[in-house]
Structures are given as C-alpha cells and as structure tokens.
Amino acid sequence: MKKYLITGYAGFVGRHFVEYLDKNETDAVIKGLDIQKPDFSRDSYNNIHMDFEKIDLLDRDRVENIIFSFQPDYILHLASYSSVAFSWKEPIFSFQNNMNIYLNLLESIRKLNLPVRILSIGSSEGYGNVNEDLLPLTEAHIQKPVSPYAVARVSQEMISKVYVNGYGLDIVMTRSFHHIGPFQKDIFVIPSFARQLVEMKTNGNTSGELITGDTSFVRDFTDVRDVVGAYDLLLKKGKTGEIYNVCSGRGTSLSNVISNMTKILDLHIHTRVNEKLLRPSDNRIVIGSNEKIKRDIGWHNHISLEQSLADIIDYWRQNGSKCGDNQNGHA
Amino acid sequence: MKKYLITGYAGFVGRHFVEYLDKNETDAVIKGLDIQKPDFSRDSYNNIHMDFEKIDLLDRDRVENIIFSFQPDYILHLASYSSVAFSWKEPIFSFQNNMNIYLNLLESIRKLNLPVRILSIGSSEGYGNVNEDLLPLTEAHIQKPVSPYAVARVSQEMISKVYVNGYGLDIVMTRSFHHIGPFQKDIFVIPSFARQLVEMKTNGNTSGELITGDTSFVRDFTDVRDVVGAYDLLLKKGKTGEIYNVCSGRGTSLSNVISNMTKILDLHIHTRVNEKLLRPSDNRIVIGSNEKIKRDIGWHNHISLEQSLADIIDYWRQNGSKCGDNQNGHA
What we know:
The structure is a homodimer of 331-residue chains. By secondary structure, the first copy, chain A, is α/β, with parallel strands linked by helices. In chain A, strand 1, helix 1 and strand 2 form a beta-alpha-beta unit. In chain A, the strands form four sheets. The first copy, chain A, has a seven-stranded parallel beta sheet, sandwiched between helices. Chain A has a two-stranded parallel ribbon with strand order 7-10. The interface between A and B is medium-sized, with 27 and 27 residues.
C-alpha cells in the first residue's frame, strides 16, 4: 500500500491522476488537498481509498499537521495558478500561489524530516522565448522566464534543487508542456475552441466564425492521461534532483488543432483574430524533447493528438453547459 | 532636486549611501524605509533632507501609500535579509523578506504608474558554485543558486526583467559581490575577525588564536563607499533592464585578509578551524568581472583593500562594544 498526498487535487490533472491510480493500483491511499472542493466523488472509483481536505496551502501550520498525520510516501504537487494571462493581471497572487505555497510544503517536510518523495510540477513556460534553431528543447536549455507565472515556476525549480542538495529532500522535478484532455476548463485555449465549436454544431450550424489569438503559434500538446502516467512513473522511478520534460516531442499549430476539430464536427469555420488575445511576449514555437524521460524511466506517450481532440469534443458534447477548471492546465 | 526612496535604509549600505549623497549632492531629498530604526541621525548631514519611516515592506498597502505621497525619482532597493547562513535556518522568512518584499514594491509602482527608476540590488551568490576556469564572472555567466538566499536573489532578478519587458518599468539590476567597510555588523566574517582582533589588542595581547571557517576561500571584496558610488551612478546612468556586477575584479583569500589586519594591529595570530563554520555548498573562489560597469557608466573603485581594512580596524577600535548591522552586507 502506497500513500499519495496530492495538492491541487480538485483540478483537471488531479482528477485524471486519481483515475489513473484507480485503474493501475489495487490499494493506493490518496489524500487530496485543494482550496476548492473537487466536483468528482469517491464513489466513482473501485480500487483506491480517497480522502479530501479543503485547505489554503499558504497556511503552513495546517499543511504541516496534515502531512504529519497522513505520513505520505509520495507527494504529487499539482497545486498552481497556472494561467499565464492571470499572472500578468495579479502577479503577487500568482507568485504566492505558485512559489510560496510550494516553499511552505517543502519546509513542512524538512521540519518533519519525513522520507517522502515529492514530484514538483514545473512548466515549459520557464524556457521563455526560444530560438527556433534550438528546438526541440532539452532539459539543458537555459530558462529565461518572460511572465510572472514563469518566474514563479523557475523559482520553484531552483528552490527544489536547494532542498535536494542542501537539506537532502527527495524531489523530482518536471517541466510539463501543454496538456489537454476532457475536464480541462475553457479558460484555456483548446477547450475554449472545443466548447465554441460544439455549441455551433449543437445549434444546428454547418459553418461559423471562431475568434482567436494568433493561431500560427506551435505548441507541444500531450494528452493529460499520458501526463498523469508520467507523473506516477516519475514518483516511482525518477532520479532525485533531476528535471524531466513531460511532452510529446511534436509541435502542432493552433490552426491545425482547429482544423482537426472542425473535421471531427464536420463544420466549416473561418477564424478572426482578436487583437486583445495577442500576447506580445509569447513564444511562437515551443516543442520539447522527451528523450530524457523515455530513456531514464521508460515513459512513452500513447494517445495521439487526434484521439485527444476527439475525446475533448465528446466531453464538450456531454458537458457543454459546465465551465470546467482553471487550475493545473496550461493556456 | 532629486528624490530618493531608500529601502533597507537603516542598514550598513543605506548609511553609506546617505553619506555619499550628503558629500556629492547639494539638494537630495531622501525618504528612508526600514523595519528597524536607523542608529544614525539626520543631524550629521549638511546638504541633504532626510526623513525616515518604519515599515514592514510585506505591508503592500502602506508601501503603495508611501510611494504615492513621496513620488520618488529614484528607488534604491537595499532591503534584504542578506545572510546566507540565516537563509538556511529560516528559508521561508528569508525568501519572503527578499523576494516577496521586492515584488510588493514593484507591484506598487506598476499600479501607481510612476516614472521612477529602480535600482534592484542583487547578489553574486546567485552564481552558485562556479568552475574556476570561468573566473572572473561576467554578467553572461549562468546563475545556479545553491542557497535559499541565492534563490530569492535570482528570483528577484527574473521578476525585474518581467516588469521591465512586460510592464515597461524602469529597473536597473546589480549583482553585488562582497562589500566591506565601517559599520558592517559582526555577524559577517570580516567585521567579526576585525572585532576579535581589535579586542585582543585592546586587552594587551600581542598574540592569540582566531577561530575561523575555511580561510582558503577567495572572495571579491569592494569597499562599501565605492559600492554606494556605483549605486548612485547606476541610478543616473545605468541602462534599463541591464544587470551590472558591482565588484573589484580582484580576489583575496580570507587568510590574506586576516594577515593584513594582524599586520595593521601588530599581532601574531594562529587560526583554528571550527568545523561548524564550514559550509559544504559554499563556493571556494568567487571573483567578478567589473568590465561592464566600467565600460557602460564609467564607474571605478578607488579604495584599496588595505585602506578598507585599516578603516574597519579603526571603526572597531572606536566601536568595539557595539554589535553592528545584520542587513545589506554579505557574509
């Protein structure tokens, strides 16, 4: 029996991680922490034992008490305000709810001196604006964060290394690229497109207009169900103090994603750019290398982009009125 | 008339900066902020107008109000818990009182939309453990912080760049190497040695034992009076968004510093290493390049190490019973 503490439990990735454990572990015990209640319940699962506690991770005393009582084997630290756009609006709040909550968590574990393995989720946003000649990005690429969110993520990684090398904590780090899938909230770009396209179709239209930002942007999309598999494998087999890109190794433009979805829905769409959705300091092309995670722990992504998009469309067909989740994805 | 807002005003560097302005400016207006009251008073100065306000910089509302009322031309952000050793003991407190206080300051200025120039003081500690072949360190050297304090300093620099490039703030950054001089508190290594050696001499001894850490460590020491000159020049002539090493470009071992001081005092000393004072993750040799600051703004350091040490000895001769200052220096 292994005990997992999951922060950011109520989010998009947390939900998929729980589903993954339920399918792949016979006796995992999970304690979920989040500032908001999850909208999925323990009744859906067969093999795992789940418990949830509502907490603001800035409350360090409570964090420490919870960790002490639960005595986890693994901590999957998903909690994050991961919207880049939000971080530009509220940089202090974003920083505190990325970096400071994480530092609280590490400090609790240091003080309790527990032999727990921590997986620190970071972001490809830390790489910043990269020279296209250097793609795909390996972990050796120097990080130059260009948004408040990205600064917090790089800070998180730097403090992780200090806690590994200076205090002897057992931390593995990721730089996770964009992940997509069912249940992702539509404040993020792919689910937002999916919801709008499904709405057009449901309303009986065969054609329509989609308002977008710059759809020539190329991103490295991985299905969240592959991502959570990587996280569980990293908790079990990742090397202490090491950083792993979690990505597909393949770039896809947003326009390509849109045309894939319109094909599935049999819609004819023209896109119109809203200047307000253009973000000047965004990278144009981001593609990661997943050689290290493949080599070191034998992870592979299995779900094709086409399959992901089909499942996302299905999800919005069934859940068009819900508004999804704003944490733990990447806009 | 130029208005200077100085955070960390009561510290070692703040005091010297005020003296510098008093000597070099006829009509500077200064507002000092610090969490503790300065132990120097406005009566000592002839040319400048000074005012002090006691404040915890984590109190963002008060920070914003003060900045709005004062409408500074320049902000010299000296405030920092700059002890590396302390940051290992209290990483959260250290991080908050380096990074979070700075983010509060930047966010206040962004919200007020003031045309103020900010000098963000950073640290050579950000460079981490460096390959000796790469000395002296230029600003192009990649930072790999190895202590909680250093992580906070690198985070401060990263967020500065985001506020320059993303929000258009006018920020110049330093990576300041070790600075020494009168009034530095004896929790730092050079004033600690000076105080102990002066005590031996005052007690009538001609020889004695000094307990040290590893005295083979080489550091780049600059007199604080040269450092504050650099800071004023950077406020006036530094390029927005640029980072400048502030250093002498010369390395000196701690054992060399000790023998210099014993020569001045005519003492015969043997040193004994206290294992507890050895810090395993410390750099052995740190020397910076000051080519950029010389080239870009015409700064030069004028005060020799021998002169600095003589002045420090003099200071401790006159102030042996006082215990100095624990901020804004580098241990």
